[in-house]
Specification:
1111 residues, mainly alpha, Importin N-terminal domain-containing protein, repeat
């Protein structure tokens, strides 16, 4: 009776849970969860859930209570067997009573509780429990394979809900689930109805089941067997109008690729063929095609090698190419927006572009380059479709953007040839696409594309030649014009000036044509002026042939008072004039007074200082300091104001940046999703701009870093004039040492270093030393963290200046010595942030002759090499010896294990010079490195580069001068003499000037080493006498001949006639370089005159002036 009352009360409380009053609902819920928790009440809750006669709302309340109870430990175990059976019967009834008329929440509630009980029965592990679970699975299968559509749909929903709500239980029935999945889909396939709501729910459930297979390796083959059906459903759903349903198959593929990719690869061909078809079908919506392309990209990322083994990489690349072979959108000028929609979210074009880049990035650069060229060459050559030729250009450009390694010479030449073909195409749209491709390659194929300068630079000339009169006079520049001018600047800035020189004349001819006001628009002239400034900045003195014509066209622009629309034209003209000051200082000095007058006039009428104006002031301070001094109080106010205003602006930006951090993060993500960077974005000289970032209008306000660098130059050129303002200037500048702007930070360091030098020289050592102590840790940190090589070199030079100025006092700060030696160590090991591992092979040695970026990287090493010996001079020798050993031990050990080859790379040459530079600070301790120095001499003398040979000559002379005892001297001569003897052989290619220096070295060796064979060496010396290029060589030869005549006259006797002629002629023509050598020659001639009077008289009469000196 009590049980019956309890059950009645449970039903009443479940009814109260549907009450409209929240208090009643809360109270009834509390009573059900606290008072009525006995097994019999639990059974009653199950019966209410299974009673179709109850209101759905009450059944859902019962399901909610039951779910919470079954989730508690031991609730099910506390039920008696008959109670468990009663509950199971109720739940089975509830499950079988579900229809499509039931709302989704009731379906979910019933299935969830059924799944919970199935899991509990599995834990019990008895046969009777397993049989009940089989009844549930059987019912699901029965529904799924029913001929009734609604039953099929209900079965699929139950299938999905069981996976969703009870994954741990479902894991035990994966094989049964696979059978249901396959059987249902095979029936749907027979009926031609693979894409139905029922199969969608089934596929959704299978999607959720995939991760479960990762925990059951024994069942994974069952999952793999479903892949053909999954691909068929992917195809079928792709053509459904519902976007969510259309992408369902791709979701399953993505899940499978994420959790069990190894199951996909045995059937990769099947997957790829279907994805190729879907990606290429223009009848499908963009969203579906995007999903197909993204799935392809996942395949590339995971199984690129397998795709190649299947011989499907060509098909993949051609599929991507065809996706790009569409007519581009046009901008307002009617020009193509190449890859313009790659900035939009997920279009087929953008995803195809991303995938091309990924293929290039993931593959061996040169192999995939050759493959791409083989596939694209026919497309470039065909004449049926200009759109396809455009697509081929874009395809190769994207490939170039993705490459991560250096492109070899052969494919590099082919890439440039493809662009060259496009630039000469008859169709304007193809030519513009080639211009676009060139801009991408010039930026991303660094540094190797610098070697192609003889091919690339003429392409810019062709671009200028192809411009029509209408294009030249258009009132604004088009995208293609701006892009090509910016590409020209960026590419030229990546070159060594020696590589640019052969093409400078042709480029300047075109640019000067673009500067003529009658035939060109203002905007085109602005672009041309910017390009001229860039070429001149790179070329420096090599630009002299163009000085006059450039000045003639820019000086009037600087001096005029332009209207607003021409203000930017004058700004660019100022930049060009500033550049000319570094081209020909003498010619520039003639125009400096006029320019200074114009500068003052401009400053009076400007509301704010324009860009390049401070550069102009800095440059003029070197030519007309007096004119500047007269107006200095007016000018310095503008400089300091720009510095202060710039810092205030930076602070505001920092605050805005903090507030917009989330937006910035989103921007970074978007950038990562867009077309990624290529392998070579470094162009040296502190330049990091890209083609795209360069396009746009130039601002007219001067940047604070320009004002800072101006202040530094003023302090160098006009120290006395700057001195009264140094305190105020220091306060303005000091705030920039923590700037986020790297160039501004570097400029601040340089200014403060110059101020410290100025204070030191004016006698204020204490203030100068305070500056040093404040700056040194920041300088060291900047060297380690700065990204641009030019900025790092500048900071290293500041440290070197402090060391030269203060000596040991510069290292008194705590840890300063360790800081400095640490950055030298990091530099030598290429561990600074600005450095990259360029390797030391022959390819890199060639590239260093062309690429400014690689040359700049060497300049960082050189700056460290300049700093190290100065550092050594600032401390005790033994202390420096310890530091030098710590940084040199690695490469010196390697050198000592090698044999000289005469193949001196730039890096090896740097190491040899570094060791040599450090010998002086080491003093006598340098002797322990003489073996390395001798090795360096021999290796460098075997090379054929003049500067390397000269280094060997200088080094051996230093060693012979600093050898402290006879034993050291003989060791040095024994180790090195043969290479100098070989250098004077008749078949040696050594130049005459170097031969004379080598002859002097051998003469010096004869004088200091008794074991050296004079019979072998002396004839070689005499073969190079008399000297005609290097008279300083007599300093070594004359004393050696005198000593030899005194000690071994018989050896010299065969050469007495030549000796007399050489010495008398050199005296007659005043060729002996100093008085000591002259006196030694006179003494030797006097000795010969006494011993060989007849011979002397015969020869001496030919040189009466010299003979008169011999008594």
């Amino acid at each position: 009776m009590a049980d019956e009352e309890n059950r009645t009360q449970v039903v009443r409380l479940l009814g109260d849970m549907m009450n409209a009053h929240s208090d009643v609902v809360r109270q009834s819920t509390e009573e059900l969860t606290s008072l009525y928790t006995d097994p019999d009440s639990t059974v009653q809750v199950c019966m209410v859930l299974g009673n179709v006669g109850k209101l759905p709302a009450m059944r859902k309340c019962a399901g909610h209570i039951l779910k919470n109870r079954l989730g508690q430990p031991d609730v099910w175990k506390n039920l008696l067997p008959n109670q468990q059976k009663e509950a199971q019967d109720a739940l089975l009834g509830a499950f079988k009573s579900l229809t499509m008329n039931d709302d989704e929440n009731l379906q979910l509630t019933v299935v969830r509780n059924v799944g919970l009980v199935m899991g509990l029965l599995l834990d019990a592990g008895n046969a009777e429990a397993a049989a009940w679970n089989d009844l549930i699975i059987d019912h699901v299968e029965e529904l799924c394979v029913s001929s009734d559509k609604l039953s099929q749909l209900l079965g699929a929903i139950c299938f999905k809900l069981l996976v969703k709500t009870s994954p741990d239980m479902f894991e035990k029935y994966l094989v049964r689930a696979k059978n249901i999945f396959v059987r249902t889909l095979e029936l749907a396939k027979e009926q031609g109805e693979l894409a139905t709501p029922a199969t969608e729910h089934l596929l959704s459930g299978w999607h959720m089941a995939i991760p479960l297979f990762s925990r059951r390796p024994c069942d994974q083959e069952e999952l793999a067997a479903t892949l053909p059906l999954i691909m068929q459903m992917t195809h079928a759903f792709a053509y459904q109008p519902n976007p969510k349903r259309s992408c369902r198959g791709f979701d399953v593929l993505a899940k499978l690729n994420k959790h069990l990719p190894e199951l996909m690869w045995p059937q990769l061909k099947l997957v790829l063929d279907e994805l190729f078809l879907l990606a290429s079908d223009t009848n499908l919506g963009d969203e579906i095609r995007v999903q197909a392309i993204m799935a392809l990209r996942n395949c590339v990322r995971s199984k690129r090698r397998h795709i190649i083994r299947l011989k499907m990489m060509d098909k993949l690349l051609m599929t991507l190419y065809r996706l790009m072979a569409i007519k581009p959108a046009l901008d307002a000028d009617g020009e193509e927006l190449y890859l313009g929609d790659t900035q939009e979210a997920q279009s087929p074009l953008s995803e195809a572009a991303q995938t091309v880049i990924l293929v290039a990035a993931e593959s061996d650069t040169n192999r995939v380059a050759l493959r791409a060229l083989r596939l694209m060459q026919p497309q470039l050559e065909q004449q049926q479709s200009a759109v396809h030729r455009v697509a081929a250009q874009l395809f190769l450009a994207l490939m170039a953007k993705g490459f991560t390694d250096l492109l070899a010479d052969a494919p590099l030449r082919s890439f440039i040839s493809a662009v060259e073909t496009g630039i000469r195409d008859v169709e304007p749209m193809v030519r513009r696409s080639a211009h676009f491709a060139l801009s991408i390659m010039a930026e991303n194929l660094q540094p190797e594309i610098t070697v192609m300068a003889p091919k690339v630079l003429p392409l810019f000339c062709e671009f200028f030649d192809q411009m029509t009169p209408e294009q030249r006079i258009a009132d604004h520049e088009t995208e293609s014009q701006t892009r090509m001018f910016c590409t020209l600047e960026i590419y030229c800035e990546s070159l060594r000036r020696e590589a640019l020189q052969p093409h400078l004349g042709e480029l300047m001819k075109r640019l000067m044509g673009a500067l003529q006001p009658d035939n060109n628009s203002i905007s085109l002239r602005q672009l041309a002026l910017s390009a001229v400034a860039s070429l001149g900045k790179i070329s420096k003195d090599l630009f002299r042939p163009h000085f006059d014509e450039v000045l003639a066209i820019t000086l009037p622009l600087v001096r005029e008072k332009p209207p607003e629309e021409r203000m930017l034209l004058r700004t660019q003209a100022i930049q060009v004039v500033n550049m000319l000051s570094n081209v020909d200082s003498e010619k520039f000095a003639e125009n400096a007074p006029v320019l200074m007058d114009s500068y003052l006039e401009m400053m009076e009428h400007m509301s704010s200082t324009q860009v390049f104006m401070f550069d102009m002031l800095a440059m003029l301070s070197n030519y007309v300091p007096e004119q500047i001094r007269v107006n200095f109080s007016f000018l310095i106010v503008g400089v300091l104001a720009a510095i202060k205003d710039g810092k205030d602006s930076d602070d505001e930006k920092d605050e805005d940046g903090f507030d917009a951090e989330t937006d910035a993060d989103a921007s970074v993500c978007a950038e990562e999703d867009s077309i990624g960077d290529g392998h070579g974005d470094q162009t040296g000289e502190g330049n990091t701009r890209s083609i795209t970032s360069s396009i746009g209008s130039l601002g007219t306000s001067a940047a604070p870093d320009e004002a800072l660098l101006c202040l530094k130059t003023l302090a160098i050129n006009m120290p006395d004039t700057v001195m009264p303002y140094i305190s105020e200037a220091t306060r303005c500048v000091s705030s920039y040492t923590d700037s986020q702007n790297e160039l501004g930070k570097r400029a601040a360091f340089e200014v403060l270093t110059e101020f410290a030098i100025l204070l030191y020289r004016k006698g204020d050592r204490n203030e100068a030393k305070c500056q040093l102590n404040e700056l040194m840790p920041d300088l060291v940190d900047f060297v380690e963290t700065a990204k641009e090589t030019a900025n790092v070199v500048a900071a290293m030079n500041c440290i070197t200046q402090f060391l030269k100025l203060f000596g040991s006092e510069a290292l008194e700060g705590e840890g300063f010595a360790d800081m400095i030696i640490n950055i030298v160590r990091k530099t030598l090991r290429r561990k600074l942030n600005c450095q990259f591992d360029i390797g030391q092979d022959t390819k890199m040695s060639v590239l260093q002759q062309w690429s400014q970026a690689l040359h700049s990287e060497i300049q960082v090493m050189e700056a460290a090499g300049e700093m190290l010996p100065v550092f050594g001079q600032s401390m005790r020798r033994r202390q420096f010896a310890g530091h030098f050993h710590s940084i040199s031990n690695r490469f010196l050990k390697s050198l000592r294990q090698c044999e000289p080859t005469g193949q001196i790379t730039p890096h090896l040459y740097f190491l040899y010079k570094l060791v040599y530079r450090c010998m002086e600070p080491l003093g006598v301790i340098a002797e322990q490195y003489y073996d390395v120095l001798c090795y360096s001499v021999v290796d460098c003398m075997m090379d054929n580069k003049p500067h390397v040979i000269q280094f060997a000559i200088n080094l051996i002379n230093w060693m012979l001068t600093h050898a402290h005892d006879k034993e050291n001297m003989e060791t040095i001569i024994t180790a090195t003499s043969q290479v100098f003897i070989d250098a004077l052989n008749a078949n040696s290619p050594l130049a005459n000037e170097k031969r004379e220096q080598v002859a002097a070295i051998l003469a010096r060796m004869m004088m200091n080493c008794e074991t050296l064979s004079t019979e072998q060496v002396l004839p070689l010396v005499y073969e190079n006498l008399p000297f005609s290029h290097n008279f300083d060589a007599y300093i070594q030869v004359v004393p050696a001949l005198r000593k030899l005549y005194q000690q071994k006259p018989a050896v010299l006797e065969p050469h007495l006639s030549q000796t007399l002629k050489v010495l008398l002629e050199s005296l007659e023509k005043h060729q002996l370089p100093n008085e000591d050598t002259r006196q030694t020659a006179i003494e030797l001639l006097a000795l010969i005159k006494v011993d060989q009077t007849s011979l002397y008289d015969d020869i001496g009469q030919q040189f009466p002036g010299a003979s008169a000196l011999i008594t």
